[in-house]
Automatic annotation (TrEMBL):
This is MHC class I antigen. It comes from Homo sapiens. The gene is HLA-B. It comes from the Eukaryota.
Amino acid sequence: MLVMAPRTVLLLLSAALALTETWA
């Protein structure tokens, strides 16, 4: 689980970045 934590955080960050870029 601890190994997957950073991956999920990166995925969420990339998703948020894509959303902000799309909204902007």
